[in-house]
Amino acid sequence: MDRQTWPLVVLAGIVLVAALVGAVLLAIRVVRTRRMLGALGAGGKVAFYGALIYAIFPVDVLPDPIYLDDLGVLAAALIYLTRLAHRRRAERGLPERPPPESGRLRRPVP
Questions:
Q1: Is 88 helix (H, G, I), strand (E, B) or coil?
Q2: 6-30 as b/e, with b when 16 or more CB fall inside 10 Å?
Q3: ∠ CA(41), CA(45), CA(49), 5° rounding?
Q4: 51 burial class (0-12, 13-18, 19+ CB within 10 angstroms)?
Q5: Are 48 and 33 in contact (CB under 8 A)?
Q6: Residue 46: how many other CB atoms lie within 10 Å
Q7: Are the C-beta atoms of residues 40 and 88 closer than 8 Å to each other?
Q8: pTM of the entire structure?
Q9: What one-character-per-residue DSSP string does 51-70 give?
């Protein structure tokens, strides 16, 4: 390789590593929504398991070194699950976040 192609190879490697890290972080966030699956119904379960299966199996729209399709599927599932969870909370009349405990003292962060 000549000197002009090395920066492109390094940049492509950085982009691929960043896409892989992004896919892993999105998969972790989707897995953390698993605790809500009982309340989200069949649509939430299909979105959760479908996104994880698509991200894990090697059969993809794009080849595996390119994680853009996995990122898109995981992000779409996370958005869908988040909206579904907010809708269920609103139907039940629950607040978005639990109120802070008033009797508990918090230490200041240095």
A1: helix
A2: eeeeeeeeeeeeebeebbeebbeeb
A3: 180
A4: buried
A5: yes
A6: 13
A7: yes
A8: 0.61
A9: HHHHHHSS--SS-TT--HHH
What tokens were used for 16? 């691929």
pLDDT in tens, 46-95: 888 888 888 888 777 766 667 778 888 888 988 898 888 888 878 777 66
State whether residue 7 is helix, strand or coil: helix
Instruction: Return the residue matching tokens 């649509």.
Output: 43
The residue behind tokens 């995981």 is 74
Mean pLDDT for 19-29 is: 82
CB 68 within 8 A of CB 105: no
- Taking a C-beta distance cutoff of 8 angstroms, is the pair 68, 16 a contact? no
Please state, in angstroms and rounded to a whole number, the distance separating the CA atoms of residues 22 and 14. 12
Give 1's contacts (C-beta < 8 A, 6+ positions apart): 9
Q: For residue 92, what are its two tokens? A: 């039940």
- Which three-class secondary structure state does DSSP give residue 99? coil
